[in-house]
Amino acid sequence: MAKIYESITELVGRTPLLEIKNYEKKHGLQAKILVKLEYYNPNQSVKDRIALAMIENAEKKGLLKPGYTIVETTSGNTGIGLAAIAATKGYRFRVYIQDQVSQERYQVIHAFGGETIKLSEEPAIAKVLEETGGDFVAAIKALREEVLSKEKDIFFVDQVSNPANPAIHEATTGPEIWEDTEGKVDIFVANVGTGGTVSGTGRYLKSKNPGIQIIAIQPGENSLPSEENPEPEEITGVHPFEGIPVERVPQTMDLQIYDEKFEVETIEAYRAAREVAKTDGILIGTSSGAAIHAATQLAKRPENEGKTIVAVLPDTGLRYLSTNLFNEEFLV
Ligand code: PMP
């Protein structure tokens, strides 16, 4: 029977689970590491899932109609996913970029016909950022109240408070892992940016087996800006959720869902990503490296012998070629 897809929206999700056999062997691991390769999504990241879900949810609720502009603030992958789906569905797309992000990301959003604006280039927001010392929660509030409220025919996606974000992981990522492992999963590892992946997938897996351990990754101390090191190499898209004021934790992060918080330094993430490219031939981004590093440390714990660890790898290493991720002279 012919199998012809009619929209990239049909290509989102159902990503493969791969056991990184050579890497396990090299490290003498007594536990299995299965990685969920989210770069198999049509625009190469886990964020295609939420981009599609948030857009279709808004269409169903009447918040997004033909002729509207879709607006978001993001450091990258969500912008790319939204830009592509906006293109295929015929919406305009505008993204306010929060962080220093790699050049590739701007180029990709522009290729899809999207518009990019740095948060600091919008005067009302620049003022709030300066007054608050870089408080993004306050900046997004100002964007909503002082900029977007004055425009019409706008849909502000807001992935950090949009319930469709964790919900799509509960509806798809979780079930895919459960089905592909036939329920044989003991530990689930995910990064936390908005917290959508860990919260939604974690919720589904715990509903099937409350004994599954959920591990949430946050950046290590040396990988966050500090007085000594104001601009460290950061793990793209990954943010602290413990040790910060609760009002700065995204609403999409369920602080009750995880059993353990695991800290990873950027250099550890780089090493893991570089290594698994050489052992198993997969080219992944920094946060994926962080997930493999965490999974490796968990696999080495004696109590985890014989267990199965599933780690979500959010995106492709191709999106980091202008960074130091695969620059082997850097931080080796
Ligand atoms: N890794 C990358 C590369 C990301 O872009 C993100 C999301 N910003 C994450 C990890 C974290 O995923 P989530 O938002 O679902 O917590």
From TrEMBL:
Its cofactor is pyridoxal 5'-phosphate. Residues 8-315 form the Tryptophan synthase beta chain-like PALP domain. The keyword Cell division does not apply. The keyword Secreted does not apply. InterPro entries: Cys_Synth/Cystath_Beta-Synth, TrpB-like_PALP, TrpB-like_PALP_sf. Pfam families: PALP (PF00291). Keywords: Pyridoxal phosphate. It comes from the Bacteria. This is Cysteine synthase family protein. It comes from Dorea acetigenes.
